[in-house]
Amino acid sequence: MKRNTKQKKEAPKNGLLILGLLALYKWLQKAWAKWMSNKTKRISKRSGTIALVLFVSLTSGYCIYLGVHAITGKSKDNAFTVTSIKRPRHLTESEAIASPLPPVSKQDYRRIQKFRWYMDSLARSPSGRKLYDSIVAARPGLMDSVRYIEKEYQNFKNQ
User: Fold this and answer.
1) What pTM, to 2 d.p., does this model score?
2) What is the pLDDT of residue 154?
3) Are 113 and 105 in contact (CB under 8 A)?
4) Do the domain assignments include residue 94?
5) What interhelical angle do 142-158 and 129-138 show, nearest 10?
6) Its domain of life (predicted)?
7) Rounded mean pLDDT, 109-133
8) DSSP sequence for the chain
9) pLDDT tens string 9-55
10) What are the residues whose beta carbons fall under 8 Å from the beta carbon of 48, sequence distance 6 or more?
11) Which residues constitute the domain of residue 64?
12) Structural domain total, the chain
């Protein structure tokens, strides 16, 4: 294999425009840095430190005030308002009346339990793992549904 020692750099699609903007950006950075350096030459290190501490403390104090006022303020112009969530009527008016019968019969529950045991045994054995994976891939929520039904049955049984 022969390696290329020289790598060609591809020019951007809008090369002149991008290069011009980058040059302008660099020039503005240098101009701003030079102007700031000239303005701060006369300030001593101690004065600069005091000004920085004062600026940071005032800014953070104002931010804390805004946060506390937004949460605890009594005015109607709060940034954060708390509105209660209301359920739609069709969710609260259920036609289903709690019945004393379990949602799943005992016979169906036993079948579901046997199925879960079978799937667990498949998952544990190396040869059955492929079959288990294919079943779970074809029916992604199957095992979750089985666990949910078993949990609901147990909850009903404990009532």
Assistant:
1) 0.37
2) 83
3) no
4) no
5) 90
6) Bacteria
7) 90
8) ----SS-PPPPPTTHHHHHHHHHHHHHHHHHHHHHHHHHHTTS-HHHHHHHHHHHHHHHHHHHHHHHHHHHH--STT-SS--------HHHHS-SPPPPSS-SS-HHHHHHHHHHHHHHHHHHHSTTTHHHHHHHHHHSTTHHHHHHHHHHHHHHHHH-
9) 555 466 888 899 999 999 999 999 999 999 888 889 899 899 999 99
10) 40
11) 15-72
12) 2
Flag whether 59 is in a domain: yes
Hey, what are 67's tokens?
């946060």
* Within-domain flag for 2: no
Q: Which two tokens stand for residue 144?
A: 């979750």
| Token pair for 4 | 């290329």
> What is the token pair recorded at 10?
């591809």
What is the rounded CA–CA span in Å between residue 50 and residue 37?
A: 18
Could you tell me how far CA 98 lies from the centroid of its own chain?
37
CB-based contact 158:124 (threshold 8 Å): no
User: Tell me, what amino acid is at 56?
Assistant: V
Residues sharing a CB contact under 8 Å with residue 131, sequence separation 6 or more, in sequence order: 122
